[in-house]
Amino acid sequence: PSSRSTELVSPSTVRLDRENICAIGRLQSLWEIHSLYLQQNHIEKIENLGCFPNLRFLSLAGNRIRRVENLQPLLHLRVLDLSHNQIQTLDPDELPRRLRLLDLTGNECTHQHGYRELVTGALPHLLQLDAQQVRGSVGEEEEEGGSSSSEDEDDESLSEPSGPFTAGKDFFADLHRELAGRSRRRRREALKEHQTRLEELEELRGRRGLLLPPAPL
Question: pTM of whole model > 0.85?
Fold first, then answer.
């Protein structure tokens, strides 16, 4: 059972998709987490994500979120999937400025006047918006000319956590026990979706430094 549960959780990745989660609870700082999967739940509000200060990948697709908020503390976030929620209007100032990939497809906000120009104007490093390439972005220029020194420093800071992983062991132990009790069918579904998503991101990624390499299964 323990080997199966670790297939879904690695030291840098947390998978909590399809768990009927209604709210994001408050946790102690989890410095080592780089990827967080919370898609296909019942989450209505983006909150309490400041406990993942080194997060680079966040999927909240297929929830019940109505507003983009509380993402500014995620200074290292590069990929954000908010597709198929209930976001009516978008305030681009609520988005982390160093995002490289953003997906808001399936939300009403994508139909608001000047949506694409509004988002790309607020996110100078954006490379992909709703699976379409953004031309002339700062991120595109950085990729063509090589990573900037600030990006190199950013990656280095992520490889060495700047604080203690205080809640890690207890958090993962509880999570492993919970996931170990799930059915084999749900595990297969989660792993299949995980692989499909990684294949999609591999096509979007295509350049060094866009994402950290996915943790081995």
Answer: no
**Nearest to residue 68, comparing CAs of 50, 44, 40?**
44
| Strand order, beta sheet including 128-129 | 13-15, 35-37, 57-59, 79-81, 101-103, 128-129, 132-133
CA dihedral of 45, 47, 52, 55, whole degrees rounded to 10: 40
Amino acid at 76: H
Separation CA 201–CA 83 (nearest Å): 14
User: Which tokens hold the place of 97?
Assistant: 């400025």
Structure tokens belonging to residue 176 = 């492993």
DSSP-assigned states of every residue in 113-159: TTHHHHHHHH-TT--EETTEEPTT-HHHHHHHH---HHHHHHHHHHH
Q: Name the nearest CA neighbour of 119 among 152, 66, 82, 146.
A: 82
Burial class (CB in 10 A: 0-12, 13-18, 19+), 183: exposed
The tens digit of pLDDT for each residue in 26-61 reads 878 888 899 999 999 999 999 999 999 999 999 999
Whole-angstrom distance, CA of residue 110 vs CA of residue 66: 13
What are the Cα distances from residue 77, in Å, to 53, 59, 113, 154, 201?
Answer: 9, 11, 26, 11, 15
